Amino acid sequence: MAGKKLFSNMSGFPLMVTLLIRRSENPDDSAGTKGFTLAPFDAQWQEYGNDTDIYLNGFRLVSTNDGSLQGQQDIVVVRGSSLDNQLNMYNAVDFIPVNGAFSISTRQA
Questions:
Q1: Which residues share a beta bridge with 25?
Q2: In this predicted model, what pLDDT tens digit does every residue of 33-51 receive, in sequence order?
Q3: What 3-state DSSP class applies to 66?
Q4: How many Cβ atoms from other residues are within 10 Å of residue 106's Cβ?
């Protein structure tokens, strides 16, 4: 069964999200990407990967804000890091605006 998580946009701006999918357990190995758009204050369940590639290696966010295009990328480089644990131990990820960037909060949905 593929990975599945609830993603929430806690901002007033549309977000273009790209999930970075890991091949097996090694953060150096990529299994591709999955893209989707989150409207302001929207939440969506998204499936990604496949039966064996169920881990996330990071994400890219692009938003339009006040006439500009803003981007952010967070990537796991060490298995067991804070970002790795946040993305892979919980089934819900909230993208929260903070001072012109985004942080994430994770939880069980």
A1: none
A2: 999 999 999 999 999 999 8
A3: coil
A4: 17
The domain of 91 spans: 3-107
pTM reported for the whole predicted model: 0.93
| Cβ-count burial 47-73 (b if 16+ within 10 Å, e if not) | ebbeeebbbbbbbbbbbeeeeeeeeee
Total of domains in the chain: 1
- The dihedral built from the CA positions of residue 81, 93, 32 and 70, taken in this order, carries a sign that is negative
In this structure, what DSSP letter does residue 100 have?
T
| Distant-in-sequence, close-in-space partners of 80: CB < 8 Å, separation ≥ 6 | none
Residue 41: CATH number of its domain:
2.60.40
